[in-house]
Amino acid sequence: MAGNTTSEWNPPVEFYFLVEFQSMSGQRFHASFSEVNGIGWHFSTEAKTTDSNEKLQMPTGVSYPSLTLKRALDTSGDNFYNWIQNCLKMVFLSGNAGAAKKRACDVVIKLLNKDGQPLAAWSCNHAYPVKYEVNGLDAGRSGLAMETIELVYNRLERIR
Predict the structure, then answer these.
(1) Cα 81 from Cα 76, distance rounded (Å)
(2) Could you give the CA distance from residue 102 to residue 105 in angstroms, rounded to a whole number?
(3) Average pLDDT per run of 10 along the chain, which is 160 residues long?
(4) Range of the domain at 74
(5) 93 lies in a domain?
(6) Which residues of 119-133 are buried (b: 16+ CB within 10 A; e: fewer)?
(7) How far apart are alpha carbons 81 and 147 in whole angstroms?
(8) Which of 21, 104, 115, 158 has a CA-to-CA distance to 94 between 20 and 30 Å?
């Protein structure tokens, strides 16, 4: 019976992933995060009336949520931190908020199997930071100081 065969499929776990960056200049680096949100897209639609007076929902465009990356506050000055700082400096030096786009990176998020090999991967193209935040500091708690970075991107592609 086909229904009684053992399956080789193991459901993927959400906690084993890798985030890689590639700048427009070709520089590659990766950074560790405890949480990644915002992998997705949404079609906007508009009701159109056909010749036969039937109403159809037709796509008018696609939009992407912000990519939100969370991690323990990094004090080492890693490549990711340097990239964020360079984007910020570029905006202040040029006086142009669009200047960060020139420092954009392609961000690849890989969901890994137990052996560290990609099960699924998404490429968020032409991403750049639009928000940085440190969680509240509270002397009454003993949690980690966390930072949250929000990136916008122009296209999402499932590459695996």
Answers:
(1) 9
(2) 9
(3) 63 87 86 95 91 89 96 88 85 62 86 90 94 91 92 94
(4) 12-158
(5) yes
(6) bebbbbeebbbeeee
(7) 11
(8) 21
